[in-house]
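Lecture 7 notes: from sequence to structure.

We start with a single chain of 397 residues. Read the sequence below before looking at the structure.
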Amino acid sequence: MSRPLAIVCAALAAALCLLAVAAPAAPAKDLTQELEAKESQLEETKERKGVLTTTISRYQARIHRLTGAVAAIRNREAVTQARLATEQERLATANDLLERSRDHLARLRDHLRAALQSLRERLVAMYETGRPELLDVIIGQGDLEDVEARAEYLNAIHTADEAAAGRVRELRDGVALTVERRAAAKGEIEHARDVIAAEASELIATRSALQSRQGELVSARGDREATLAKLRHHETELDGDVEAIQGKIAEELAATGSMPLPLGAIKPGSGSMIWPVDGPIASSFGPRTIEGSYEYHPGIDIAVPEGTPIRAALTGSVAFTEPEASSGGYGNFTCIDHGGGLSTCYAHQSAFAVSAGDAVQQGEVIGYSGCTGYCLGPHVHFEVRINGEVVDPLGYL
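Now the structure, written as tokens:
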């Protein structure tokens, strides 16, 4: 129920110290050191792989955002180019109108000059001769028909004079309005064209910058993916090395035999219980990750050589002993009831020393350590339960 490194190393060290049939210490120590080095390299490789994976994911998200931004700018460019084309057409149309209005203005000015000349001549003639009055016409020579004819003539002259003056004013106002309209239309269209052209230029520059940044990110992501592939290959090699070393250690442990070890001294705890065996903690209580999988560890794993006697942590009665065939991952499994809802359990035993219903005293041997059930190396899995719920054993040891 734990990773092999601490369990196997502690088991190997204890076995070599306690068993007369153990392998020589120097080779075992070398294997332990080699295993620790490989495990360290493997953990470092996994950490680097995790960092690279996170970085690549972040790059991918940024590339995705930039791709969307470039697409949006391209759409805006298309709309802006269409507006620019429309303004260019308007400007071309306005230029045609300006050309025609220029000809029209020239004709208006010719007409104005002619009208002014005619009016000037009329005014000069009136000044030189004086304007005939209706009374002079009446008392002048001729009969009544001549008088009427002369009156109509004078009225016609007066009307003509007024018309000439009005025509002059009309032509003058037309010339001024045409000039003003031409200038306003031309200025407005050219301004719109300049604004749209500037916007189009800015969009093109922005798109180029985004595409350049996108290319840099793609290149960086490619470099990191290549590095990640190398790390994965290296991790696979390290996994193989670790398994090979573990196999060698297992062979050395197997060579020591599985006979019970001598009964060692009791290891007292700071709480009400004693330690079931004397060894280092290979895996603590609570959440942990083993071989990439998350799980909740319901006890502690104490690394000891196979065959180490297991003591009852507290006085009580054996609630049950369950063999490996029916206990699942616990292997050979014993639980002791201490009363008041308190119980302790001992897993992965190589052999039982008590049976269900037996009364046991604190420190009495109830079995022997091993590696039955789900196990990667000899150790004792120890649990403390309150009303059936597991709690951290270190609070009682």
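The two ends are 20 Å apart (CA to CA). Keep this in mind for problem set 3.
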